[in-house]
């Protein structure tokens, strides 16, 4: 398939890592399921913490293939807390998201609390926790 050739070309090119990641992020929505699964693996390795915003948005999308979400969730767990916790909160507050329960569980572990579905309390606690526990 054509996406595989494009991906191979991108990975083999001399292009800077952040530029490769941007190219992959651009092509991601147009990829078939297998392509999204494969590209998610590369994105988790290529996207820097400074550019994590777009990858976080992909993680928040409940319609992505399960395997891609698994990869993006694992990646989020390895990011600094200032990136990880807001990303997990976004996933947890999306009831139809396949990873919502996992995200809520991790948030509860970090924050040592459970606010159920009171997302404003979760949001406030994340902000307070991040102020008290900078990266």
Number of beta-strand segments: 0
Separation of termini? 42 Å
Shape: elongated
Let me know the largest β-sheet: none
Residue runs with pLDDT of under 50 for 5 or more positions: none
- Order of H and E elements: HHHHHHHH
Strand content: under 5%
Structural class: mainly alpha
Number of helices: 8
Percentage of residues in helical conformation: 55-70%
What would the keywords be for this entry?
135 residues; mainly alpha; 8 helices
Textual characterization of the structure:
The protein is mainly α and 135 residues long. Helix content is 70%, strand content 0%. It has helices spanning 2-12, 17-27, 33-46, 52-59, 66-77, 81-92, 100-111, 119-132.
Element layout with pairings:
Elements: H1 2-12, H2 17-27, H3 33-46, H4 52-59, H5 66-77, H6 81-92, H7 100-111, H8 119-132
Helix pairs in contact: 2-3, 3-5, 4-5, 6-7, 6-8
Quick synopsis:
By secondary structure, the protein is mainly alpha-helical.
């Amino acid at each position: 398939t054509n996406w595989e050739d494009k991906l191979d070309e991108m990975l083999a090119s001399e292009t800077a890592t952040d530029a490769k990641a941007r190219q992959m992020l651009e092509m991601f929505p147009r990829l078939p399921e297998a392509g999204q699964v494969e590209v998610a693996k590369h994105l988790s390795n290529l996207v820097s913490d400074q550019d994590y915003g777009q990858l976080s948005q992909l993680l928040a999308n409940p319609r992505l293939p399960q395997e891609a979400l698994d990869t993006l969730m694992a990646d989020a767990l390895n990011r600094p807390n200032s990136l990880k916790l807001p990303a997990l909160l976004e996933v947890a507050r999306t009831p139809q998201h396949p990873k919502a329960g996992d995200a809520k569980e991790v948030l509860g572990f970090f924050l040592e609390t459970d606010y159920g579905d009171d997302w404003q309390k979760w949001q406030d606690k994340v902000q307070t926790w991040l102020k008290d526990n900078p990266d």
